[in-house]
Amino acid sequence: MKDQTSPLTTEAVNEAAATTIEDVTTTPSAAPTKLLSEDATIANIESDEDSGYLNASDNSLSADDVATCETSIKSRSSEEETKQQQQHNDKQPSDDSSGSNSNDEENSAVSSSSWRLDVPSKVETMSDDKLVEMLKSLGEEFEKLPEQVDRRKWAKSRVAELFGETLTQPLLDVAAGHLIDGDSGISMDQRPDWLDPDMFRRGQIFARDFQFGISYAELISLFMVFSFEEGLKPLIMTSQSGTPFTAFKRYLSTGCRVQSWYTSDPWTKGTQAYRDMKAVRMMHAAVRKRIEATTIPEYEAKTRINDAWCPTLDVIRRDFQSTCPAPAPGQCPYMVVSKYPELRGKKLSQGEMASTQFAFVGLVVLNPKFFGIHASDEDLQAFCHTWRGIGYLLGIEDEFNYCRGTLADVKQRTIDFIEYWVKPNFRQITPECEHMMRCVVEGLQYYFPGSTYDTCILDLASVLNLHMPRLYNSLSYQAWIRHNVIRMYFNFWSRFSGMRTMMNNQLNRSIEKARKFDDEKLNSLKIKSDKLLESYRNKLQQNREANDIDQIQVE
């Protein structure tokens, strides 16, 4: 049986990008038969509680698989990589007591890593209480630093000292960024020395040429960003995207601004891109100020969603817990912050700003062909350069900028971000995460229908090498057909420039039309949004009442 997760590596990404998904086929019967993908063949297999693999305790993994699972997904240095590879080559095949066939060797090769990191024993024993103590001490020490101390250098050094044995350098930088205020204070009129105007413009052209595919990658990337519970809370607190209608307005506005950054010159004062950049930076400052003025109890109360819209939460959790890796102690230090609100640090920090950049570029550079983006490495590097510039203008410091370095650097940073943090997050998806993402997708239907919440999750799972059999089997035929039509476009039709142009134009026309909605149209959308949430909450209430009656009868 195929392993349920294959951690991303540069080699795996390149191999996946070189392949295409088989064309959709249908049967001659009157009603189409929903084809079972490889994901769906394991739908009825129950998962272990915390193994990260389906049937992992049922002798479904060979000895080689188990040995592979116990290796670290982190390469500390090229020397350690060579040493680990040599150890793997020296390993003799063991007897297969489970009766697996010759395919076990192939499966072992596919699964290059584990459901948990191999960490030093002293980290293995780290408890939440110990982690809380470390984070409290870190915050207190940082606040007491003398003015003459380089706070950024100190933060990086201290974070590396605490978590250097479990996190890679790119993630240590992001973690250190959570201690630093999210706005660098640098004037937008001051151009950085590293800026290459020609490369910046090339990245803008690339973004316009593949606008539809990039927009879809950004859409499903929101689910990864929302998986960070503390990062999601500021969005909930602002109350500007907690319903389909408010999400429609918020992300339509965001889309228009990003579009201006691709079509105008943000480095020239007075342009539309410059004005939009300045407006976003000012909004971020206002949100920071608002959060800082809020007490911890008030903040916690304002960032909870009562009766969250999450009808598939249980199904998705079960799938994610079957296919996503469980974190090692100290691997996801931010998780304890949700349990201990007093650890709340700076909001919209440099670390959170860098994580937001990830949503705009991560999947695009990781597997561009999955989104119908057929471009050279030079184009992708230019796209990263464009977003490095955008990040700079939004107040992200160079040392925390997600898009700094080469294309290979950004790819590896993305792989680390997903493997070490995003996948473990998925195991504990919150009702608020599903609620907010559903609002985004439903709001998109108001002017550009096509995707659904379920199909977005399935596409995200595919690009991350995750298996979602329960969610897949729960699809209606209509959703299944829609999902395969979308995949058909990205896998085949997007190869033709005429098709890309058509989809780009359709998206732009839809955005422009939505911008011109009159008050009557907007009011009708608001009513539609309110009715949808009210209907779901009524069903929840009916279920609660039915459960109460059942409980009384039992007693």
Describe the protein's architecture and organization.
By secondary structure, the protein is an all-alpha fold. The chain is 60% helix and 0% strand. The two termini are 45 Å apart.
Features:
555 residues; mainly alpha
Largest sheet geometry: none
The oligomeric state is single chain
Give the SSE string.
HHHHHHHHHHHHHHHHHHHHHHHHH
Low-confidence stretches: 16-81, 90-116
Q: Structural class, from helix and strand content? A: mainly alpha
Terminal CA distance reads: 45 Å
Nearest-integer average pLDDT: 81
- How many strand units? 0
Tally the helices.
Answer: 25
What sort of overall outline do the alpha carbons produce when their principal axes are compared? globular
Strand residues, percent:
under 5%
Radius of gyration: 24 Å
Question: What share of residues is helical?
Answer: 55-70%
In short, what is this structure?
The protein is 60% helix and 0% strand. The chain is mainly α and 555 residues long.
Q: What's the helix and strand layout?
A:
Layout: H1 10-17, H2 63-69, H3 78-90, H4 103-110, H5 121-124, H6 128-143, H7 151-163, H8 169-177, H9 197-209, H10 211-226, H11 229-238, H12 244-263, H13 272-292, H14 296-302, H15 313-323, H16 335-339, H17 350-366, H18 377-393, H19 407-426, H20 431-444, H21 453-463, H22 469-473, H23 477-491, H24 497-515, H25 519-554
Helix pairs in contact: 7-8, 8-17, 9-12, 9-18, 10-17, 10-20, 10-21, 12-13, 12-20, 17-18, 17-19, 21-23
Biased composition (Basic and acidic residues): 76-94
Protein name: ER-bound oxygenase mpaB/mpaB'/Rubber oxygenase catalytic domain-containing protein
Organism: Trichogramma kaykai
